[in-house]
Design a protein that fits this description.
Membrane topology (chains A, B, C): Multi-pass membrane protein
Distance between the termini of chain A: 56 Å
InterPro entries (chains A, B, C): Gly_transporter
Keywords (chains A, B, C): Cell membrane, Membrane, Transmembrane, Transmembrane helix
Oligomer: homotrimer
Low-confidence stretches of chain A: none
Mean pLDDT of chain A: 91
Largest sheet of chain A: none
Organism (chains A, B, C): Paracoccus aerius
Strand content of chain A: under 5%
Subcellular location (chains A, B, C): Cell membrane
Shape of chain A: globular
Radius of gyration of chain A: 17 Å
Helix content of chain A: over 70%
Number of strands of chain A: 0
Chain lengths: 215, 215, 215
């Protein structure tokens, strides 16, 4: 694989898999097929859109590649007709989201590296590309944002992978190899959290607030 | 009407009518007059702002036309002093929103056509311009986003109108006429849904989740 | 102080203090240290990012100043280890947010003035820079947005300060002095509201809706 091919490939994969999670959220909200397409597209391209806006790229990645919208729409149609086959759509969302995170973080970091920004911004763009599609999906879909799930590695998984990419490139590893490592680190941290309960100490000074109006 | 006048006119109308819905949400939240202006402006210009950012236009449409902010502020003042005259402010929001959707979708599609993007992106920009102002209004105002209302044509109405515009232009209809048809399609689908119960089949595999924390 | 130094200084202060409020929201959600960094950064740079996108500046302010991300991360670490020392973290958030608002509004207005936009847009950019970081923090953090708190001057404080800046510059006051006045007006209005109950008349036609699904 040529180095120039990896990042677009990761971007495509992230768009597709995030689109599946968006369509699954639409299924939880019992929307119609166009609602599925809306959520699939919003989730699939959301993170990369915010990244491209922040990096001030000449064009948002999907505006010049409209086939990406067809891809997210196809993912929506697929889910609309097959989601009932899965016992727990929520578990499916969580695992597809984990996979999408694992490809979106290196995609975002790779595009930031191409843009020539500082390592701190590379890490930030990896995290933004990885987390914002799901964040927009959850906020619009009235779900609890995954970034708020206590005792799980989520932002931390994205952050760990993005830092790994920057460090490995810093010590001389070829960029494509470092980006693949980055994705593996994200997946390992996220899967370890979901399967083995890996977590970082959380802040715990008093019981969580009961609800948003109780203060 | 010259072709060059229609799109700005639609944009103005969309800003004004969405602003009215934003002010009505502010009335439901019992805010003060400045809160009304905030919500009216956010809702009035939200969709077009996201569209202009994605299309990477030289300037966001309202930055060069500050009178639009005065328009949304005027709408807010009007609603602040008259909203109590209406029996159901929620019904009023729904119908004004339907009208705003019907002018915002062709406005967004028209601007995307001027930008020369592909038909798929034209449809996406119609939907974004139509739905995002109301989406931002509902998320910030702590209302259930209209895109989540089950069994109603909302995104579907926007989508149907935008597709109609692209198809009609594709078969040779003059652009302004096609955009007017686009708006009529949006309004017909939305009104048919609200008055006659038109809907597409929705996904229905199991009862909806009870609340966002119950998983 | 040279005139050219004031605006960056206000921007730095706003980023730092908003970051503290973001980390405190992360503490209320009982996140881990990376979750604190995520919320601190999102809140610290959110308002200025939206402002820079709307003004179409060549680069988002923090992309060229990655030390700002280190600043928000440092704020997060500080809060992670000290938040338990405060009796009411919510009161602390409210007051830090008030201070951040008081520096972010003049920072946003100052940058808009440098961009040469019309006075109406200067006011809008002051309000956006002041309120959007906290708005994003509250929406993502599942808190009730401060813009919805009834009977408090919040958007109104930001608006009052921004209008004061534009008027004072319009009558010939040197820009840096006017921006300092702007910040004092914001703080006076917000503090007066919190301590003395200052408010504007709110819209009150019927009791507030019980919840977002009850219509």
């Amino acid at each position: 694989m040529t180095p120039g091919l990896l990042v677009p490939l990761l971007d495509y994969a992230a768009v597709l898999v995030f689109a599946l999670t968006g369509a699954l959220v639409a299924s939880r909200a019992q929307l119609d097929l166009v609602g599925f397409i809306f959520f699939a597209t919003l989730t699939g391209i959301g993170g990369g859109t915010v990244r491209d806006l922040i990096l001030n790229r000449d064009a948002i990645f999907w505006v010049g590649q409209p086939e990406l919208i067809l891809l997210t729409s196809g993912a929506a149609v697929l889910v609309f007709f097959t989601a009932h086959l899965f016992e727990s759509r929520y578990r499916l969302i969580v695992w597809l989201d984990a996979f999408a995170l694992s490809v979106a973080v290196p995609a975002g970091a790779g595009i930031a590296l191409q843009a020539g920004v500082s390592p701190v911004v590379v890490v930030a763009m990896g995290v933004v590309t990885g987390t914002f599609g799901g964040l927009i999906r959850d906020v619009v879909g009235n779900e609890l944002p995954m970034v708020l799930k206590q005792g799980e590695l989520y932002v931390t998984a994205a952050f760990g992978g993005a830092v790994a990419a920057v460090v490995l490139i810093g010590v001389g590893m070829p960029r494509p190899v470092a980006l693949i490592f980055c994705g593996l680190v994200v997946m390992a941290l996220r899967a370890g959290s979901l399967l083995l309960g890996w977590s970082l100490p959380t802040y715990r000074a008093r019981p969580p607030r009961a609800d948003k109006n109780n203060r």
